[in-house]
Amino acid sequence: MADTAAAVGVNPLTLIDMLRVANSPRFERWKEQVRRTGGCAQPIHLSGHSRTVDTRTGEFFEYSTSSEPGGRLRIACGNRRASRCPSCAWTYAGDTYHLIMSGLVGGKGIPDTVAEQPRVFATLTAPSFGPVHNRPDSGRCRCGIQHQDDDPALGTAINPERYDYAEAVLWNNHAGQLWQRFTIYLRREVAARAGLTQAACKEVARVSFGKVAEFQKRGAVHFHAVIRIDGPDGPDTPAPAWATVELLDDAIRAAAARATVPVPAAGRFPARTLRWGTQIDVQPIGSLEGQADVSERAVGAYVAKYATKAAETTGTLDRRIGELRELDLHPDLPDHTRRLIEACWDLDAHYPDRLLAHWSHMLGFRGHFSTKTPRYSTTLGALRGARADWRAQEERREKGLPALDQDDDETEDTTLVIAHWEYAGQGHTPGESWLAQNIAQEIKQNRELAREIRAELEGDGWDD
Question: Which residues lie in Basic and acidic residues bias regions (predicted)?
C-alpha cells in the first residue's frame, strides 16, 4: 500500500480514502456533483428536498438529497481566492475579465463605441516605509547583493529595526479611504483642466473606473485601475472634445499628489498623514496587440489575474488569525510578514475602530479587492445571473420542461419551486480532495483547449 501511495503521490491514508470513494456505489453521481461545481476545492454541502411544479399541466418533479452520495448535495463555495479554491477563483477571474473588458471594448450591455473614449491604465502605489531588498536597474541592491528573481529576501526590510511597520499597516488599513479621496480630487482636477466648475463638468462628462488591489512583495497594497472619461450618461454618450488621454494623465497625477488621509496620534504612536507614493504609472490603452500602448486584452487579463490573489502572495496566511499566539503555529512565516502582523495587533488597542487585529492576516488592508463605478461596465451580479439563467434552462431541458424565452414577453414562467435546504457541512475528505483536484484539472484543460480552438477559428477569443 505504501509503495502504491508513493507512486500516486499521496500518503497511504489518503489512498485508502480514495479507494473507499471510488468503490462506493454512488461514485459516478459523486463525480457528476463535483463536475457541476467545477471541481470546487471546498464545496458546501446541503441536505433537503424540493418540488418543482408546472402550474399549467400540474406535473411535478420531486428531488431529495436522500438519494445523493452521503445524503448531500454539493454546491460551489464561490471563494475568489486562488489559494483557497482554484476552481471558483478561475470563475471569478473570468467574470472580472469580462467586467473590465466590457468597459474597454463593449459587450455585456455596453456599446462598442466605448473603445473611442479616452482611457488609461493607472497604477498607484504606497510610499516608502524603509529600504527593502530589490532588483534595481543597476542590478545590485543597496545591500550589495544582486538578487535573483526568486530570492525570498526580495521585498523584505534591509534593516527591520528601522522599518516603519506601524505606518505600513496603517497605510494598508486606510488605502480604501485614500483611493476614495483620490477619486474626489480626480473629478475636480478634470473639471479644472476643462475650465469648468464641477457642476458644469457633470453636465458634459463622467469619470468611470474599474480597479483591483495587489500586494507588493514588501506587503504594501497598491491599485491598478482602468480610468475612463465618458459623456454625461456614461459609455452610451461620447466624451467631450476636450477630454483627452493627456488631460486624464495630468489629472490623475495631480489628484494623487493632493489626496491625503490624516491619522491621529494614539498612545506612543504619533499623528500621521498618509499619502500615495511618488511611483505613479499612467499608460494609454491601445486597441491592438503590438502597439506602444498597453493592449485592452493585456489589461483585462492582468486585472483578472490579481482579482483572485490577496496578501498570501507575501507569505502571510490566507485566513483570519484568531489571536496573536496563533502565529507560533506557523514557524515558516517570513520574519518581515510576521512583523507586519504583529504591528496590526500592537496598533489594534490604540485604533480599535480600524479593526487592525481582525484584518491582520491581510496586513491591515480591509478594503474591497475589486471595485468599479456604476457606469463603468456590466456588474458581477449580471454575469452571475446570466450563468444562473443558463443553468436553469439546462435544468428545464433535463426535466422535460419547455424552454423559457427570456426575450419573449409572452412567454411566462409557470414553474413553481418549493424547497427546504439545510447546511450540512463543507469540504472534502482527503481522498475526495485528491479526486476533485484531478477533475478540476481536467475541466481546466478542456476549457483551455476549447479557448485555443475558438481563438484559431475566430482570430481571438476568451473562454468563460
Answer: 391-400
**Is 416 buried (19+), middle (13-18) or exposed (0-12) by CB count in 10 A?**
exposed
Model pLDDT, residue 291:
47
For the chain, give percent helix, strand, coil, nearest 5.
40, 20, 40
- When pLDDT is cut at 50, 70 and 90, the band that residue 306 belongs to is confident
> What average pLDDT does range 296-317 have in this prediction?
79
Q: Please give the backbone phi and psi of residue 31, each rounded to the nearest 5 degrees, phi first.
A: -65, -40
pLDDT value, residue 463: 44
- Interatomic CA distance for residues 266 and 309, integer angstroms: 32
Find the DSSP H helices in 194-334. Answer: 198-202, 245-258, 296-306
Question: Does residue 410 surpass a pLDDT of 50?
Answer: no
In this prediction, what percent of the chain has a pLDDT beyond 70? 90
Look up residue 191 and give its three cell numbers: 473639471
d(CA 21, CA 24): 5
Q: What is the DSSP letter of 160?
A: T
Q: Is residue 116 part of a domain?
A: yes
Is the pLDDT higher at 137 or at 101?
Answer: 101
- Cβ neighbors of 463 (< 8 A, separation 6 or more) are 94, 447, 448, 450, 451, 454
CB within 8 Å of 209: residues ≥ 6 apart: 183, 225, 226, 227, 228, 372, 373, 376
Q: Are 425 and 69 in contact (CB under 8 A)?
A: no
Angle CA 19–25–29, to nearest 5: 95
Whose cell is 414562467? That residue is 413
**259 in a domain, yes or no?**
yes
Residue 429 resides in a domain = no
| Distance, CA of 100 to CA of 79 (rounded, Å) | 20
For the segment 408-420, the average pLDDT, to the nearest whole number, is 66
Domain range holding 203? 86-129+164-372
Phi and psi at residue 172, to the nearest 5°: -55, -45
**What total number of domains does the chain contain?**
1
When pLDDT is averaged across residues 201-222 and rounded to a whole number, the result is 94
Q: Cα(first)–Cα(last) distance of the chain, in Å?
A: 41
Residue 441 included in any domain:
no
Overall pTM > 0.70: yes
Inform me whether the pLDDT recorded for 86 exceeds 60.
yes
- As a whole number of angstroms, the distance between CA 162 and CA 182 comes to 29
The one-character DSSP state at 323 is: S
Could you tell me the pLDDT band of residue 253, with boundaries at 50, 70 and 90?
Answer: very high
